[in-house]
Structure formats: C-alpha cells, structure tokens
Records
---
Amino acid sequence: MRKKLRNRIRVIKLIVFAIVLIYVLMNLSIFILNMHYKNFDYRYIPEPDSDTRALIIASHHDDEILIAGGYMIKTMQNNGEVYVMFNIYGGAGLENLSDKVTVNKSSWREEETVKALGLIGIKEDNILFLTNKDQTGLLDIDNMERNIEDIVSLIKEINPSIIFLAAYEGGHCDHDMTNFAVASAIKKYNITIPVYESPEYTRYRSFYEEMLFRLEKFSIIKIRPYPRFLYNTEEEIVTINMSKEDLELKKKMLDQYESQSIDLLRITHNAPEIFRPLHEYNYSQPPYEHKDTLIYKICKIRGKSNCEFFNVCRIPFENIKTVIEGVNSQ
Ligand SMILES: [Zn+2]
C-alpha cells in the first residue's frame, strides 16, 4: 500500500517537474528569441510631405495597415494624399462567421476598411476595391493579365509618388500574386516611381517562432514583435519613425477589422514598420520554395488535408508561367 502511494507521489513529482521544466524552457526560449531580435540601425525613409501621393496596393482589407499604416498616418498628418487599392475581393476567412453576418461578407469588410482609413482622414473616393477572387483568382492567366493592366491604369490615373505593397515571400499566395502583378506592370510599362515592399506576414514565419507565438499566452515573457524579410537584405531596409500616439492610432485602425483575427493583427501593431525597394525576384519560382517556410512545414507535418490551401496556390502557379516568362524576358 505504502509502496503504491510512494510510486504515485513519485509520478506526480515527475509530472510537476516536467511541467515546471517546460514552462521555464518556454520562457527561456522567448527570452533568447527577444535577444535575437536585435534592433538594427535602419535608415529612415524620407518623411512624406504635402507633395506625397502614396499608393498602397494591398491584397486584402487590413493588409494596407500592416504594410504601411505608419507611412499612411505620416502622409495624412503632413497633408499629403493616400490612395489604397485592394486587389482581392475579401470574402475568404469569414465563412465560419456566416450566421453572425447579416450583410454581404465582402461589403462588411469594405465598411471596416472605410472606417479604419477614415480614422486618419482618407476619403472613400481614394479607396478602390477590385474583385479578384481570394486565393485562386489571380492564378488564372487571363485574370492575371487583366490585373496587370488594371494596375497600370490605376498608376497612370493616380500618378503616385511612391507605392507600397507586400513582399513576394510566401506570406500568403494572394500577396505573392499581387507582388508579381505590380512588378510585372512596372516592368512592362517602364514605370519609374519608387516601389517599396513590406515583409508583412513574413515576420512570424519560422517554425520555431510560430511555435513560441502559439505558446506565448501561457508565458510570462512576451514576444517582442520584430519584422524582417526572409532574404538578408538589411542594408536596403528603411523604417519610419513613429511616435507612441502614431502607434496607438495604428492599433485603433487595426481594431476596426472586427471580422479578422484581432490577435494576429494586434501582435504586429507596435512592431517597427520596415520596407525595402521592390526586390528583383525570380518569379518563375514559387516564393515558398525558396525557404521552407513555416506554413509549408506545418502542412507537411500535419498531412495532406491541411496542404489544400498551399496546393491551391502551388499547382495553378503553373497556369501563369506564360505571363511570368513573358515578363521575365522583357
Ligand atoms: Zn492579406
């Protein structure tokens, strides 16, 4: 009897020890990660002024703030103009909310956008919503060619002084396709406006970091958000100086996107905003094959069914190869 009791106590002690050990290791890992997120001494992007006409080309509603929320805030503060184009018709990601949503899903997101951008005084007339379908819309050769022409017309009409978009780094296939479409438009029509890209989702794309992000809620030490590009191009990176008030405003803008994962948006809001001139990508390679990015790894670990999203992006990528080769040969 006593022996049994002693064994039980020993097992309980072992379990408690294991839990404590895991907890300490988790906190230690986050601490080491934060140390690793050292502050680079980035140069600043020239401060926008009253002549600035910034065009943000986002894929989805909310990407515009994650890409260049700070730059938009500064431009509006300095009496410049901000234009935002959404390349994708945003219905995906809202399927599970269908019973809560009484209005059209996409128009709901559009309302959120108008509210978010209205907070800094961007007029509704300066916001344009295109109707390309989520995830597969731009993986069709005709749609992609039309999209490139749409982007060219938009650039000609707005005549921006600077353009921002998300990088081609496998953060999301819609972002990658939009990056490709903009780069193609620029190359095809020899557009010389400065174009900057943002890592956006790339910042938490390593397997190790994503695990820690998922565990963070149980940890005392919190992860310091730190954006970076997948490719080592630190010397080209610029940032924008944002005050505490600007960061608060950016958070408030993100808060308008109630239909989206607020937690995901929240962790990014006070990270430094970084950009680099549009990178010369090899678009004949899908972006997520350059590096074995997180989602791809998780999807491999979990099995085929979870790969669906990536296969959607992956296989039809072949479909637009002709456009890619056409652009690359110019
Ligand atoms: Zn997006």
---
Amino acid sequence: MSPGTTEGGLDVATGDLDARSLYGLLTSLVVPRPIAWVSTVSPDGQRNLAPHSYFNLISSSPPIIHVTSSQRRGRLKDTAHNIAETGEFVVNVASREQIELANHTAAEWPADEDEWTWAGLTGLPGRLVAPERVAGAPAAMECRLVETVALGNGTMFFGEVVWFHVDARVMDGHRVNVRALDPVARLGGPLYTPLGEVFQLVRPDWEQLRDGAPAPAAGPAPAVHAGPAFPAPPA
Ligand SMILES: Cc1cc2nc3c(=O)[nH]c(=O)nc-3n(C[C@H](O)[C@H](O)[C@H](O)COP(=O)(O)O)c2cc1C
C-alpha cells in the first residue's frame, strides 16, 4: 500500500485493471457529468438521438463544445457516423422532466430505427443545421463540426455552436436560471443526480492573499447562498 492510502482503498496500476473495471472506475470518479442529448441525421436523412455524458465546454468565444462517442464493440456508433459524415449535430439539454425519455433513446436501436418515434418525441426544425431539436427540452445548441479527435476508444467531436435555443421559462433576464433548466447529471452505472444545493464562492484575490488573508480550512460545506438565486459571475 502506498503512503496515504487507507486500508480497503484502491491503490492499483492502470495496467492491472481490465477495460470493464476502468470504465466503472472512471465513470464513477469523473462525476457529475452533464448530459448532452445529441441529435444527428445520417446522409440519407435518417434521424438519430442519443444521450452523451462525455460532454463539455471547450471555448466560449467562439463557442465550442465537445461530445465523445465511445466505440461499441470496436465500431463507431450511429451518432459518430452521422457527425463525421454530415458535420452537424444538435445538443439538447436533458432536463429532469425528460431524463427517462433520454435514457430510452440510449437503447441500442438499429441504425435504421428512429429513436424519436420510439420515444414519442417531436422534433423541431434547426435554424442552421439539418438535425432537429427535441420539443420540450429547455435548451438546445445547434453545432457545426470544427474538429474530430480519435483517442483510445473515444471519438471526440468538437462543434461550434451556431445557434442557441433557450426556452423562455428558463431565462431570467439575460441569464439562464439553472433551477428552471433543471439539468440532470450522470454518475457511475445507472445513477443520476439533479441539481443539489447551490452556493456561492467568491474567487480569491491574489493581492489579499499575499497581504495575509487566511487560507480556508477544510470543513463543513459552505452555507447555502441566500441572496439572488443566480448572481453575476465574477469578471
Ligand atoms: C445518460 C447516458 C449517457 C451516455 N453517455 C455516452 C457517451 O458519452 N458516449 C457514448 O458513446 N455513449 C454514451 N451513452 C450510451 C449511448 O447513448 C448509447 O450507446 C446509444 O445507443 C448510442 O446511440 P447511437 O448508436 O445512435 O449513437 C450514454 C447513455 C446514457 C443513458
């Protein structure tokens, strides 16, 4: 056991873990993961929809996000094929209200089956891209592929957001009200979580720290922020 590792903890070289264990470990440690409900269309017009939690923000100006499609039994999934071939996708925010529907679209539907129809979902036309967005989703981002990177068993698709749709019920002035967005995040295995407590942390100021402001101690969670629900972010 390495110094600092407690009895019963995990202390192992990557090479001693098989692929299944690695997947379980990583998807339980990299949490919570936001969920992109990704809409694509094949070159011959077949709609596709599937949730992806390997999803994050890369750049805000220009706005670039990525979704990663993992290979299934060594082959690209439909989402990966469609994005690679058409260069377009739409990321819908999977809210709590629709999370079971999003999960429904994760079944291994054959490429020629329409997940939208099976899940009873309605598609709304994109403004600038061919894939539809999900009716009822609180927000959707139309993306054009800017870069593809294959690493390990994942294919990362970097997309520039060319159009934002955010439902009026989710907007709070010029900001998104995250409570109204009601996102769900993925944890390990079949576990999910909605938004929990929301609290505010002020970013430390270097000069104040240099002049002796104390470093925080580890301890109980910060108090729940009681002011306006969604304050302006720090400059
Ligand atoms: C919440 C959730 C998140 C998922 N995240 C991913 C992911 O990030 N990458 C991936 O390849 N598959 C992910 N999956 C599995 C895919 O949704 C599933 O393999 C689906 O059948 C892929 O569909 P496609 O072949 O139409 O692309 C996820 C499933 C769920 C339920």
